[in-house]
Amino acid sequence: MKKIRLALLSGGISSEREVSLNSGRQVFDALDKNRYDIALYDPKTDLKKLVMDAEGIDAALIILHGPFGEDGTVQGLLDLLDIPYQGAGVLGSAIAMNKQVSKKLYEAAHIPMPAYHSFSMTDTIDRSMVVRSLGLPLVVKPACAGSSVGMTIVRDEKDLEAAVALGFSHDDAILFETYIKGIELTCGVLGNDTPEALPVIEIIPGEGYEFFDYTAKYTAGATREICPARIDDTLTKKVQELAVKAHQTLYLKGYSRTDMILSENRLYVLETNTIPGMTATSLYPQSARVAGLSFTKLLDRLIDLAMAEHEKTKLRRSK
Q1: Could you confirm whether 271 is annotated as catalytic?
Q2: Residue 96: inside a domain, yes or no?
């Protein structure tokens, strides 16, 4: 059988470059070498090479995180090069990366989420109004950043200024959210036209971690994950329904992972990730494994979905 010529993209120029490179190495190791002829590309250094090689590439795996990886830019380039790739297209990627926009769509779809305010760098922020409206503690985070980069839990109004400065150091827009303490849950979705939810994961941050932040995500032993989550069947179904609804509301394809908080028997959607972590021990592959998909088979499925969606799009455009 002829091998699929696969471009594996990792690295990039965002603050999550090292995470992406590590994920890329693990994905490379897990890919079926009997099925794929794999070429590695780092968008930081290899974009011209990718363009030159495009005609000889059958599909791409994007293992990039943050700006210029998850935000639709690389997806747009691959569209121009006529290369199938896994996951969301330009529109869905851009929407999900921008928490201001995704929250507006969640709101319109009646997806429950924490109360919030958003501000751009040119806005005058009435800090007292924000505190009165959302209460303390509250969360400050950049509108466009992944892995909880630039995020702060503020417990005292005097700490707001530093939190705002940190948020704006990563983006020109920030969000203030009501801080909801509860059980952290996450749920993956897999599929194109009829996406299905994977088993729900419960995340337990280790001692010294208030929430599943950047360090907790990427430090071995910093968190404990339980899959399936220790919630009843009714709640499990609700989490899975919300994950699929969020996926469809943001115009996503292929796969995604939606993070939620369960507090006092109420669910709150925090955000949806279009390129979830892809190491063997990352949340999405863990959940897929419980559903019966090994890491290698999961990667096969994502590539198959990408190529099927690409063919469908080409057929539609040719009519």
Answers
A1: yes
A2: no
